[in-house]
Specification:
signal, Peptide ABC transporter substrate-binding protein, 4-stranded antiparallel beta sheet, 597 residues, alpha+beta, SBP_5, SBP_5_dom, 4-stranded mixed beta sheet, single chain
Length: 597
Amino acid sequence: MSPARTTLVACAVVSAGTLLLAGCSGTNDTSSASPDSINYALPANFTPNWILPIGTAAHLNTNNRSIADSLWERLVAYDGSTGKIAWNKKASIATAADFAADGKSVKVTLGDRSWSDGKPITSRDVEFWFNLIKANKAEWAGYNPGKAPDNWTSFKTVDDRHFTITFDKAYNSQWMLANQFSEITPLPQHVWDRTDASAKVSDADRTAAGAKKVWTYLNSAAKNISRYDKDTLWKTISGPYAVKSFATSGKVVLAANKKYDGGEKANIATVNLLPFTTADAEKNALRSGSVDYGYIEATDLDQKDRFTAQGYTVKPWSGWAITYMPYNFNNPAMGAVFKQLYARQAVQRSIDQTSLAKVIFNGTAVPGYGPVPQAQASDFVSQVQKDNPYPFSTSAAKSLLTGHGWQEKGGVMVCTDPGTGDAQCGEGVAEGTKFEMQVLSQSGSAVTDNMMSSIQSSLEKTGIKFSIKTAPVNSVLSQTPQCTSGQPICKWQLSFFGTAGSWYFNAFPTGDSLFQTKGGSNFGNYSNPDVDKLITASTTSSSSQEVQDYSAALAKDLPVIWLPAPDYQISVVKNGLGGFSQDSLANFHPAQWKWTK
């Protein structure tokens, strides 16, 4: 998953939005165009800041996961790098997963693989991950109550290369592999199973108290970005690359792991991952030729010929994603308003997705009306979601509010008839409440800024005041967490981190992380028991009908503000760089890149 999309510029210190002089790219690197190295531009203002291959809510950054996957391969790697979303066994530690006939357990076979220090990768390394997650599930961003590890009743080692996980009931095997087992990353137990730097490696993880101490130790070490290239913890790896350097400013250099014995051996010895403060800075780096694999914004498509003339190919990168702004239903000022369905309907009817997709995104986005991606055809999207239950109309939006006890005063709707009747403002909405809301939005993107301004103008016509604050995406994520109304951090009202799409799904697009009650990435604390049941049904049934029912329910109930889903990025790739398809799950895979000429 992920929310998705800088280095401080070397030739000047600039702020987001500053137009840089051509050639001022933020690095001293020059284009490689050789078999030995490649310069890859990271999304603007989306700095890598986490190495541990276990995500926490504050580190849900697609780039973090892509880097971690290059160092430690997943048990079952699902990606779209071959042109379709499927199990990529070349990049996986497991070679087979055999489900029992009753669907209540699975026996997994590991490949004959070794860590970079020569020790074999065994079932014990998977058990180590399992024990850490089981004891620290509330802090794991992938946790959703009732799902892994809650629904895994036992882990039994058969031998070094085989283990069995038993479930609490039968599950859809496609969902279990694609969405649950794809989260498992075998970890080097013989190096990491310690409670502090001086402690000896032991079996600390096999007790809950020990596993908590190990978790604290690993997470504390992962916060020390400046030591990623020095700390011995991060030297024992299973993936095709190792960290050569990892700057706090965001630049990451990966070097081919010469001890790698898996199926995706690195073709390029050195991969330079380059950060940028703004899309303009990155674009200037492209123009100067110092980036081999970069991007332009949708608003720059009229400059396509300029880049092709410089020896690049322009390739849209479509994403298996949805885009949205979560409401904070626990916000002390506006939470009660957000909990009123008619109020959310009024907001949604004030969003002109068709125009946003066409004008702001220059045709490189598709409207999204619910919780399932709509950019690609699938059996998961309901007809209700496809048909858009809340078409754009500011007059209809205004009528929804005036019909529920609101009056426009000074251009802003005000609750004048509090109460719980059908024509009143609703439970908890006090008399005199103004319909004013603020978004903390991702900075560094002209497209996002333009979209927010357009939404602001549209909401104003309905009588809703919409103010905008911006911050780097990592800051947006850290400042808009799950919270309770009494916490100081709960003052946020709306959050946006989706310039390249807010959430990238695993292969099976269920909402257990996003919209299930207390889901690990349910930032706004949305809760609907009926939706919880639909989500659970979608994970246990082999039919697509349950997912479609879930799609229809959330298209109607509006847990968030649905927005157009853009292409992940408009890639600009140096001619001669190939050997891969762009992964619709939004991960990049350096081992697949190679210079073909």
